[in-house]
Design brief:
- The protein is α/β, with parallel strands linked by helices.
- The chain has 2 domains: 10-101 and 210-248, Periplasmic binding protein-like II (D-Maltodextrin-Binding Protein, domain 2), CATH 3.40.190.10; 104-205, 3-Layer(aba) Sandwich (D-Maltodextrin-Binding Protein, domain 2), CATH 3.40.190.
- The protein is built from 10 helices and 11 strands.
- It has a 6-stranded mixed β-sheet with strand order 2-1-3-10-4-11.
- It is elongated and about 55 Å long.
Length: 251
């Protein structure tokens, strides 16, 4: 990472709050990282004295908001989106740092018969047999899923059964029995009440998603945002990232 020196030591984090005072760090993030931030927010506050003010929205929504002038200190988005916003002057040049990576999987209602998804043919049969499938019309996962149906050659058969959701997770629709299953990144499934992970997509269809954090070009709390990036690369944060179904990415 260029432009920001990431120093991950307990001493720096523990003493950082005394160097610039406590701050409120406004973070815009994809919902995939919600579990991670919810678990880490208090630990970050204890380590630095700063408070995280968190907003979770789908990637296209956040991109539009940032382009329209939304104020924030740090944004957690896919690398390509961070790079686009950097070119637009919305995110500081050199501030991007990759923090986590995850795979896509299939979520079903808890207690339902576990479908087969280990191979392309298994997944194809499962999707064709499903009575209803939810997906997000405003997320990167939703866009990938529609592309996946085309790749499998079953878009015409499956699309009439799709339930498009907005303003909430498609996993919620599965938990409520509104849809039989959904395809989404694993962290959106793990730990959610009422749903179970049927399995990850087969390697030949897998869509690994990397998440990056970038600092606003107009950040009011740039130093605190830099401390957040350092904290997200700490061993304590790595343990939480793994527990939520993601893989930590070294700086």
């Amino acid at each position: 990472m260029r432009g920001i020196r990431v120093v991950v030591t307990a001493l720096v984090l523990a003493t950082s709050a005394t160097t610039g005072g406590a701050a409120e760090v406004t973070v815009l993030s994809t919902p995939t990282m919600k579990g991670v931030f919810n678990d880490l927010a208090r630990a970050f506050s204890r380590a630095t004295g700063h408070t995280l003010v968190l907003t979770f929205e789908g990637v296209p929504v956040l991109k539009r908001q940032i382009e329209a002038g939304e104020t924030f200190d740090a944004a957690v988005l896919p690398p390509a989106v961070v790079d686009d916003l950097t070119r637009l002057g919305k995110i500081a040049v050199g501030s991007r740092s990759n923090i986590a990576r995850t795979a896509a999987g299939v979520a079903i209602r808890a207690g339902a018969l576990m479908p087969q998804v280990a191979s392309s043919e298994d997944l194809k049969r499962t999707l064709l047999a499903a009575r209803s499938i939810s997906y997000s019309s405003e997320s990167a996962s939703g866009s990938y899923f529609l592309h996946l149906l085309d790749r499998l050659g079953i878009a015409g058969d499956v699309k009439p059964k799709l339930l498009a959701v907005a303003g909430r997770s498609p996993v919620e629709a599965v938990a409520r029995g509104e849809a039989e299953l959904t395809v989404i990144t694993v962290p959106n499934i793990v730990g959610v009440e009422g749903v179970a992970l049927a399995g990850v997509l087969p390697d030949e269809l897998q869509n690994y998603t990397t998440f990056s954090v970038g600092i606003s070009a107009n950040a009011g709390e740039r130093k605190a945002a830099e401390q957040l990036i350092a904290f997200l690369h700490s061993p304590a944060a790595a343990a939480v990232i793994r527990s939520k179904g993601l893989e930590p990415v070294a700086p």
